Amino acid sequence: MLNRLLPASGPGRVLALATLFITMGHGAFMTCSALYFTTVVGISVAQLGLGLTIAGAVGLFAGVPLGHIADRRGGRETAALLIALNGLAAAGYLVVGSFAQFTLAACLFVVMERGGRAALQTAIASTLRGEDLVETRAHLRAITNVGVAVGAGFAGIALQLDTPAAFRTVLVLDALSFFVAAAVLTALPKMAPVATAADGPGQPRLAVLRDRPFALVTALSAVLSLHAVLLEIVVPLWIAGHTDAPRWMVTALFLLNTANVVAFQVRIAKRVTEIPLAVRAVRQAGFVLCAACALFAASAADGVAMAVVFLLLAGAVHVYGEMVLSAGAWVIGFDLAPPDKQGQYQGFFFSGYAASVMIAPTFLTATVLRGGALGWLLLGGLFVLAGLAMKPVVGWAERTRAPQPAHSG
């Protein structure tokens, strides 16, 4: 199965292997970090949430400047360095003993994570072209789900043992995963940094901050990205408090989501190769995600059987919308970015996603969990409006720059 998920050879396989190690560590850490910090370190749940919020806010400002460095210094070298530093930041959690230390460590971790992600996009854009770029991005999406699932499985052992040593072992493995990924990335071909002409006199160093059309594209993408936390936060609480469905449906929906992404993401992404197709995919995703919201709302119907049926239908529709949206967003984010500024542009684009994930729990709790079916329909309407707005906004962005698709041969 792993051979089917990895690109055949070359830079794509190197990038996929590095992604696999990073996401395995992330899956393991994500699964047991809350228990580690609250039971082993001894900080409260409120302090944990506050520290992570502060770190998330600090991280919003890291992607663009660190991505800019990757543009100027080279994606491979910058990505490997930042990912290795991410490993050091992960190891720093082992010596955390107070709320202040936790917040500082979390800020360092998120800054390196956001910078490493932006630099990795620069490496992808500089080493791959054409169909290889499109296909590799899809493989990376699928391998991410596999890595997180495998890492979560290892962390399950630590959760079962429930000892400080077991939790610290997970943190050590998380740190090592970053170091291994950084070493793997050095196998990428060395590419010369992009030209620095754009940074000449009179030219802004961080041009993305003045690119209003791209900022609006990022904002629309952030609205659509609200779907990303549905299965993690909203749906489990919805199932527990608003439906007659058994609690194991939460696990069933996660498995349904992961299996479909692994099986179909590459196939779907191969069909989305240029901006017009990407805009159409995003518009379709808006309607599909709206349909998923309606089905989740319908799961509040009386009876276990009806609740289970509607939840399974909602999960299937949701993951299809997720895959179509991912394929479209990748192409739009890459093709609208100037070839010599991929790092800063991808750093900015991902900051929109990060901001969405940061505000989503509060926003969705207030709308969906308190508003019930009406809240679900409101969220679905936002998805439709954002999807429909993408076409004119992308058209505006295309008119402000030369048409230079990042993945054209």
Q: What gap, in angstroms, lies between the N and C termini? A: 30 Å
Coarse morphology: globular
User: Could you tell me the strand content as a percent range?
Assistant: under 5%
How many helical stretches?
Answer: 15
Give the helix proportion (percent range).
over 70%
Q: What is the count of β-strands?
A: 0
* SSE series: HHHHHHHHHHHHHHH
The biggest beta sheet reads: none
Question: What does the average pLDDT come to?
Answer: 89
What is the SS-derived class? mainly alpha
CA radius of gyration: 21 Å
**pLDDT under 50 segments (min length 5)?**
403-409
Describe the protein.
- This protein is mostly helical.
- Helix content is 79%, strand content 0%.
- It contains 15 helices and no strands.
- Helix 4 packs antiparallel against helix 14, helix 5 packs antiparallel against helix 6 and helix 7 runs antiparallel to helix 8.
- It is globular, with a radius of gyration of 21 Å.
- The C terminus is likely disordered.
